Amino acid sequence: MNQEQVIIFDTTLRDGEQSPGAAMTKEEKIRIARQLEKLGVNVIEAGFAAASPGDFDSIHTIAGFITQSTVCSLARASEHDVRRAGEAITPAMQHAEKNGRIHTFIATSKIHMENKLRMSEDQVVERAVQAVKWALEYTHDVEFSAEDAVRSEMDFLVRVFDAVIAAGATTINVPDTVGYSIPEPWGERMATLIKRVKNADKVVWSTHCHNDLGMAVANSLAAVANGARQVECTINGLGERAGNASLEEVVMAIKTRQDYFNLTTRIDATQIVPASKLVSTITGYPVQPNKAIVGANAFAHESGIHQDGVLKHRETYEIMRAEDVGWNTNKLTLGKLSGRNAFRTRLKELGIELSSEDALNAAFARFKALADKKSEIFDEDLHALLSDEFDSVASEHFKLVYLHVASQTGEVPHAEITLSADGIEKSAQADGGGPVDATFKAIESIANSGVELQLYSVNNITSGTDAQGEVTVRLSKGGRIVNGQGADTDIVIASAKAYLNGLNKLYSKSEKLNPQL
Prior knowledge:
By secondary structure, this protein is an alpha/beta fold.
């Protein structure tokens, strides 16, 4: 029986990045793009080219080296946005086997047209058609999205889609921008559109669902069951508000329930867990233990009845094998006696390319130091170890030089710290409610930043008491929100690194313009 393929459109680098504090550097985007290509994603939405010169540069760079996936840029339905997107994906158009996509959108619901766009229906249709025509000057692969389609009137949606298909759009995306729908009516909406829109069979129908009611994956699958052949999703369900449809859940639902869908994807499922862990490390958004597919407990069995059943026959309680989605494939078979060449080779396999031989030597020295502390090194350890190397804030404003913390029963915790601030060393000390609190207060006595600490989170990168601790802090100041990350086998040092990483991001003053879709 022939199986159709569902196109997996990953928007981790664009919509996922709109999570508070999850903005990524160019180098971090490149690392994730390489992993997405290895994962087998069909389309990588690499960013929103008009948002900033940095976003444009990231998309342009990614379009230049990704060969197995289509690289896409988002663009509002304006000439400036579309042309910036077209220029950003130009490197993907240089070779016959490569391709680039422009994804343009405009809102179609009354509430958006009247209150945000202040445009009539005729004006929206005209603008949508024009945006598609502008995009066709750069690529034949043009996707059009009707923002807030979930609250748009069906007759108007049909009119807009008729017009943009006639103009040359090749993919039609139906977004649940606000996460309002539930599976049955969402599936019905997709089926109705495919039935009513002229030339519906000439385009790929796509669905893009947000998770505000916890049904993004269910809605996406309902759309697939009713004719959608592209799903827009993110690694770990990352995204603004409650997030997007989770790539790993969509893919494994289609794979596991082929009896129902009779569909397939080209995803290499063994790369799912490595992708999940990389995105979590880079963004600072930890994966909850009971998260489907990629959570630490996803394949754990506590109940004695379950354990007995699994031991006797795995399929009594497991519908997937852990190794099929990439668990237990992440150990780095290197140790403190390993050489630079083996280290360099493993980094290349992980999609990590260092800028120079000096950078490699510095990273190798840090690896050796970590190997002296840990008996086993995992890929996640490497990603965390090298995170500083890829921080775009190359000219760090603050750098940790020295930290001493004293904490004992019956005594007030005390921290002494020395920082390099723009190359000038400054020292301070402070008491606190705990060693981390004292450390942060000592940092602030030097930085005097006035930031608000919104989140402090600690996770172990791998298992074992010798594991590196990964700390995430979320800092807010003047309406800007950043996540800072730090990793070390000493959790207090990791905390200091994370706080300083956040401060350095704030000092970088890099601004982003994030559209909603």
